[in-house]
Amino acid sequence: MKRVLLIITMLFAQTVAAGSSLCADNEKTYFSCSAGPERKLASLCGSKSLQRPNSYLQYRFGTQKKLELVFPDDKKNSLVKFDYYHYFRFQTDRTYISFINKGTSYTIFTDYDGESGTPTQQSGVTVAKSKKVRFVCKGKVTNSLSSLEGAIPCDKSDPLNSCAVGL
After folding, report:
1. 3-state SS assignment for residue 139
2. 32: how many CB neighbours lie within 10 A of its CB?
3. Which range marks the domain in which residue 127 is found?
4. Rg (CA), the chain
5. Fewer CB near the terminus (10 Å): N or C of the chain?
6. pLDDT in tens, 82-132
7. Is there a contact between 93 and 77 (Cβ–Cβ < 8 Å)?
8. Are residues 100 and 89 in contact, defined by beta-carbon separation less than 8 angstroms?
């Protein structure tokens, strides 16, 4: 009986882990969470090392059964299609990865604010075309966006962006 419970527990853990990202087993999940009214997955997937010639990064949105958006379609030279933004000061930390697809701007974000009493942390995706909509993650968030600094272009449009320092 204990063995059956152990097997069921292990299978459940694998199902939950597999369902928390749209990235393949041979990819690194740089960001993933459930967001939006239908709690679909937003995942930023890529090669485990971004320093190799064939490295890639790809944003995926949808469910395990149906991807609604994959950007870019072609993984070749995909790193230059994303921009990196990081702002940090005492009690504040913001990291954004942005891209534009068919005239629509997407920003994957993680925000920490410790200045306004109780510290808050939010992650999600902002989508902007004619109006801006912010989808906040619900539940577990996988986040290693900071590891993308130096691997993708720095968004130099904002002088507060720390990746612009010294470049």
Report:
1. strand
2. 24
3. 2-164
4. 17
5. N
6. 999 999 889 899 999 999 999 999 999 999 988 878 888 999 999 999 899
7. no
8. no
Q: What is the pLDDT of residue 2?
A: 36
Distance (Å, whole) CA 36 – CA 108: 13
Structural domain tally of the chain?
A: 1
Percent of the chain, pLDDT > 70? Answer: 86
Cα 45 to Cα 29: distance, rounded to the nearest angstrom: 5
Give all strands (DSSP E) within the chain, no chain letters.
28-35, 40-46, 57-62, 67-71, 83-89, 92-101, 104-113, 120-128, 132-143
Residues composing the chain: 167
Residue 164 pLDDT:
58
CB 43 within 8 Å of CB 90: no
Separation CA 23–CA 60 (nearest Å): 8
CB 63 within 8 A of CB 56: no
Rounded Cα gap, residues 18 and 90, in angstroms: 36
